[in-house]
Amino acid sequence: xxxxxxxxxxxxxxxxxxxxxxxxxxxxxxxxxxxxxxxxxxxxxxxxxxxxxxxxxxxxxxxxxxxxxxxxxxxxxxxxxxxxxxxxxxxxxxxxxxxxxxxxxxxxxxxxxxxxxxxxxxxxxxxxxxxxxxxxxxxxxxxxxxxxxxxxxxxxxxxxxxxxxxxxxxxxxxxxxxxxxxxxxxxxxxxxxxxxxxxxxxxxxxxxxxxxxxxxxxxxxxxxxxxxxxxxxxxxxxxxxxxxxxxxxxxxxxxxxxxxxxxxxxxx
Length: 268
Prior knowledge:
The chain has 6 helices and 11 strands. The model is unreliable at 159-169 (pLDDT under 50). It is α+β, with helices and mostly antiparallel strands.
């Protein structure tokens, strides 16, 4: 499952999706534009123009269609935490490409149990107790990960046993969120409260963080359910993996997850 990152538009379905949306350049496209610009401009200025235009290729990975129900009542504290997906490793720089991450787009197909919550609430995400978090796993070797939740739990258990050594026997650990004390995750997205139909959420985080948006406000979470991801893209380094956690809290709440996709835009 998701053993390797692929250039976006490697499959027929992705090519069809690309044809319906904005043009997504390949690395070859970038090089052709760069070669044209350097005929008139210094290389540094040519690269600056490409970056300012956000003319970037994309690496993509996904979980495939895999339906999972995460129930709060499966946990004694009524707070379930299930690692639904762990991405392949981010590529290392080469002479041809630096792979500098600029933007990450997460796509989540999910819903809650379809009932419950305070009937007096008006905002669609207020009082929603099913949500997603993103984490960064560093040092995890191997290719395909068949059971991401088991792998994530081994890493977390190892970190708990020996806080001074952040690596487990596989040399892996989860990177702390330096902007949220004691946390190793970033809030990604809430489900729409008490909606029985599946919803597709698309969340975009970039390397251009707004210092005024380090922590999500209650008003923003109630309105959109979306996390701001402050610092997440800048924390990622070559060889890291992105982990997606599905959460559910309080009796009766369930997080029904069907698929996850991650698109990573990078400059060369």
